[in-house]
Each structure stands twice: as structure tokens, then as C-alpha cells.
Amino acid sequence: MKKNVGSFDQIIRIVLGFGIGIAGLIYQSWWGLIGIIPIATALINFCPLYALFGLSTSKKVK
After folding, report:
1. Is residue 37 one of the residues assigned to a domain?
2. Looking at the 3D structure of the chain, how many domains does it have?
3. What is the pTM of this model?
4. How many whole angstroms separate alpha carbon 44 and alpha carbon 50?
5. For labelling alongside 6, which of 24, 38, 49, 51 has CA 20 to 30 A away?
6. For residues 55 and 53, what is the distance between their CA atoms, to the nearest angstrom?
7. In degrees, to the nearest 5, what angle opens at C-alpha 61 toward C-alphas 56 and 62?
8. Among candidates 59, 53, 18, which has minimal Cα distance to 5?
9. C-beta of residue 35 within 8 angstroms of C-beta of residue 17
């Protein structure tokens, strides 16, 4: 797996993931579990959708 999630994107994904999870807890909904997806992709620095479309937000290493 080639890393394709940059540091700024990683921070956004973690904040968004926790926000979704907290909203799920507040509204007592199972939809809050969807917050796991952006958190997981941020922690492993890989997004399958980015790979599918050939995108990357990580810095290029020479």
C-alpha cells in the first residue's frame, strides 16, 4: 500500500471521524460507526478511493 493521505488530510479525517462518532452518540444512532472509516484511513495513511481515482495528498518523495 502506497501512502496517499497527507498530514493536513489526516488531521481533517480524524476531526471529521470523531465528529461523526460523537454525533452518533448524541443522537443514539448506529450511523456514528461510520466515523471509524475516516479515522482508520487517517491512521494507516491510505485511502482506497484515492487509489481508485489516482489521487494523493501526500508529499512526493524523491
Report:
1. yes
2. 1
3. 0.88
4. 13
5. 24
6. 6
7. 135
8. 59
9. yes
Q: 35's torsion region: left (phi>0), alpha (psi -120 to 50) or beta?
A: alpha
Looking at residue 58, the DSSP 8-state letter turns out to be S
- Kindly state the cell numbers that stand for 13: 479525517
Is 23 part of a structural domain of the chain?
yes
The kind and range of the H/E element at 50 are helix 48-53
What is the tens place of the pLDDT at every residue in 35-56? 999 999 999 999 999 999 999 9
Q: What is the pLDDT of residues 18-28, one digit of tens each?
A: 999 999 999 99
Residue 62 lies in a domain: no
Domain range for 35? 7-53
